[in-house]
Amino acid sequence: MEKKKIVVLPGDGIGPEIMTAGLKVLEAASNKFDFKYELDYQPFGGAGIDEAGDPLPEQTVIAAKAADAILLSAIGGPKWDDCPRRPEKGLLEIRSALGLFANIRPTTVEDIQIDRSPLKADRVQGTDFVIVRELTSGAYFGEPRSLADDKAIDTIFYSRAEIERIMKIGFDMAVKRSNHVTIVDKSNVLATSKLWRQIAEEVAQSYPTVTVDYRYVDAMAMAIIADPKQFDVVITPNLFGDILSDEAAEITGSIGQIPSVSAGSAGVNLYEPIHGSAPDIAGQGIANPISMIKTVAMMLDQSFDRSDMAQAIITAVNQVIEDQVVTADMGGEFGTAAVTDKIIEFINGGTAQWEQRSL
Amino acid sequence: MEKKKIVVLPGDGIGPEIMTAGLKVLEAASNKFDFKYELDYQPFGGAGIDEAGDPLPEQTVIAAKAADAILLSAIGGPKWDDCPRRPEKGLLEIRSALGLFANIRPTTVEDIQIDRSPLKADRVQGTDFVIVRELTSGAYFGEPRSLADDKAIDTIFYSRAEIERIMKIGFDMAVKRSNHVTIVDKSNVLATSKLWRQIAEEVAQSYPTVTVDYRYVDAMAMAIIADPKQFDVVITPNLFGDILSDEAAEITGSIGQIPSVSAGSAGVNLYEPIHGSAPDIAGQGIANPISMIKTVAMMLDQSFDRSDMAQAIITAVNQVIEDQVVTADMGGEFGTAAVTDKIIEFINGGTAQWEQRSL
Ligand SMILES: CC(C)[C@H](C(=O)O)[C@@H](O)C(=O)O
Ligand SMILES: CC(C)[C@H](C(=O)O)[C@@H](O)C(=O)O
């Protein structure tokens, strides 16, 4: 079996700590399930600026392009706020450089976590949808953009091809899930949203089993709180997706636990937790490692087709949550390392049990 | 005392019904408190298209400009979806024509309504903030915008003057409230947001008593759910304000009850409920009139300095809520007219009590 090449971008703030946790779990699961890989650490974000003079150093792009998958933890922090090219710039550019046009975020509320949601239990129970966010166009990349002392301009741009390909990702996903798609736009105001909706209607023709509804982004911001259970796959332009996917994460009450994947045409996916780099708690050994550990599981499942390993990791994670061996943000009193070790123990313990059963 | 001239835009769907309710309450309160006014009904929105061939007929603009205040209920509906100029276009253009650059929305969760919120009680109790949304620029009005079959473009534009004036509205409001301002932007990505934040920092210098914090719009979408109590005055660009103010409305669980005002330099304010025209329940006499009634109260208070009348109306509204004389969307079993009549009864009853006490 060929070794898989994983590019590792530990980033800033709590990034390196939780990356260490994620990689420890990857190692344990790989030993157990006989998965072979090699790691290629690269500077990125604030760390890219510090180590190589840019948030997205050339060497990192080259390595990323040659990788089978990319693991990123989190970037940014006040230290680099006044840099001409800030850490976030690296994130935008790596998306662009690798053609990572589809950001996919599961929004699932497990029964065991319902108490953690800010929403009342009956509203949120059973919530299970996926947000498909366009990631390499729209307001983030449109030209011209300019900033002067007396005025500023941004451009929102979408081409037909850009809209078609993200629609297909979303509709294909719906077919494998519950055959329901929600299209988000602001087509009562924006020209780009009119095109977005028009192409959605066209693409929908090829998916006769899928029911489609259309929401204005403002109505959607309400519906995510009022009745999140109704959604299955939500397809949204870049800027709206940024806002709505964070809103959706919040209703799970588990922002420290959510992984995401950015996928593109080139076949190299980038996996990352959805939260930020939390510089205020960096270096204290108290950051919640679960998001990064779930991110590793997502990578194993989606890039390497190892749902066995992913499942073992997720089961172990659910076990520590049930046992409340968790960090302070989840109401526990354990540190990053303790939670990670316990998860590894469960992964390994799982083996023992499995071996017993197979006797 | 001079008669106040109020332009009335009954609009579409449930618009005319709830406008009737609001005006009945205005009449009752005016009789009681000796307030003189005249009404000037004008076609607008879908009704504008039907009656005068355009969502914003010329005559409506002329009347609006000559008014002391404008009452709008709600516009739009599937009937006009294929019109070249749809009802919403009228709304955008009246904002522009009257220079209504500041949309102000209170987000208050009354103790008596906490059960109606989708949020857990401890999260939402005590929430009381105001969203100040820029309303005549940004992504809504920037040029160029174009729509072709293969691509579309919108422009986000802000000038310094546009940003400065909305900042001043927000900071002035904070001084009269709790001296706290939250600035919303996406300055890690958008040029217009960089200018937005930069000018906010400048304006803040003139308000030494006001504490300011800065939020990215995605983080803000989370914070509104996670911890809404922390906010006092929130200042946001047009498009973000559209999304966040609806999200904020939803956490109150009382979207059928929230008024808003759009204010401008010219001195004529436009008052409207924040909800839509709900064509599905139009004409059945079941629409919740409370939003429109509170909108009338807001107008009396802010345009006509009649806080006595506004207070009497709000007290009566709270009374029907307490007595559960409310429409189905609020868990009651009463129709629009019954709720309205009861509110009027309380307004009049209130007099009797007041007179008794003053004996
Ligand atoms: C850091 C920032 C540029 C980024 C974005 O807006 O896309 C982040 O919020 C995200 O959602 O990944
Ligand atoms: C109807 C629509 C154009 C409008 C807007 O987006 O401004 C509405 O959503 C609002 O918030 O008043």
UniProtKB/TrEMBL annotation, chains A, B:
One of its GO terms (cellular component) is cytosol. Its EC number is 1.1.1.85. Residues 5-343 form the Isopropylmalate dehydrogenase-like domain. It catalyses: (2R,3S)-3-isopropylmalate + NAD(+) = 4-methyl-2-oxopentanoate + CO2 + NADH. The record marks 140, 186 as: Important for catalysis. Pfam families: Iso_dh. The keyword Metal-binding applies. GO terms for molecular function: 3-isopropylmalate dehydrogenase activity; metal ion binding. Mg(2+) binds at residues 218, 242, 246. InterPro entries: IsoPropMal-DH-like_dom, Isopropylmalate_DH. The keyword Zinc-finger does not apply. It is an enzyme of class 1 (oxidoreductase). Pathway: Amino-acid biosynthesis; L-leucine biosynthesis; L-leucine from 3-methyl-2-oxobutanoate: step 3/4. It comes from the Bacteria. NAD(+) binds at residues 276-288. Its main location: cytoplasm. NCBIfam families: leuB. PANTHER family: 3-ISOPROPYLMALATE DEHYDROGENASE. Catalyzes the oxidation of 3-carboxy-2-hydroxy-4-methylpentanoate (3-isopropylmalate) to 3-carboxy-4-methyl-2-oxopentanoate. The product decarboxylates to 4-methyl-2 oxopentanoate. Homodimer. This is 3-isopropylmalate dehydrogenase. It comes from Fructobacillus ficulneus.
